[in-house]
Design brief:
CATH class: Alpha Beta
CATH architecture: Alpha-Beta Complex
Distance between the termini: 33 Å
Number of domains: 1
Helix content: 40-55%
Oligomer: single chain
């Protein structure tokens, strides 16, 4: 996960810039997804995605309290953007069922655990990545020190979220996320990130 002001690579494949991200969903598909109460998070987590996703979440919440299905396939991105989506998922009344697919990494994993464990699912070939936030502060020594302290605070906050949502101890989370921590679908179930691995939409009912 990256601080909003950090544009450096974290050791995972680079994100597409918002202007380069292909718009694969036509307006007709978007309308069908909205009617079926389905959201897709795909690609890097940034402010452009935040605006789109929370707008749809709030609109769906206003329309009905029926469950929302959210598919997550993301390499992560800005921590603050992930925080916003995480908090709005917990803010609205409808329950949000998470379905991980492909990979659910970094800020994508932060969004994924916004739902209660019993509402977190993944497809069989999903991989998960947890790690500590990264920063790329420049400027004066004083500014760099301030940024370093903020990253430490951010890391502690995010680790406590994963502790709460997985049932692992804080010490275990801190140790595991010190470096890139990959989990298969089966390992994610054992770790407490996922409740069940599913292969069919029928298994959501």
């Amino acid at each position: 996960m990256r601080n909003q002001d950090d544009d450096q690579d974290e050791g995972t494949p680079e994100q597409e810039a918002p202007s380069e991200r292909p718009n694969a969903l036509t307006e007709g598909i978007r309308e069908r997804l909205f009617k079926s109460r389905t959201l897709i998070i795909s690609g890097g987590i940034d402010q452009q995605l935040v605006s789109n996703i929370i707008g749809q979440l709030l609109a769906m919440s206003a329309e009905s309290e029926k469950p929302i299905n959210m598919f997550v396939n993301s390499q992560g991105g800005h921590v603050e953007s992930g925080d916003t989506i995480h908090d709005v998922i917990r803010f609205i009344k409808p329950k949000v069922r998470m379905i991980g697919t492909g990979w659910v990494a970094s800020a994508g994993a932060l969004i994924f655990v916004a739902s209660p464990r019993e509402e977190r699912f993944c497809l069989p070939n999903t991989r998960f990545l947890l790690h500590q936030p990264a920063g790329g502060a420049g400027g004066t020594a004083a500014d760099i020190a301030i940024e370093a302290n903020e990253i430490i605070r951010m890391r502690g906050r995010i680790n406590r979220i994963f502790m709460r949502e997985t049932g692992q101890t804080l010490e275990r989370i801190e140790k595991d996320t010190h470096r890139n921590f990959w989990l298969s679908a089966e390992e994610a179930v054992d770790y407490g990130l996922v409740s069940r691995i599913i292969q069919s939409v029928d298994e959501l009912d």
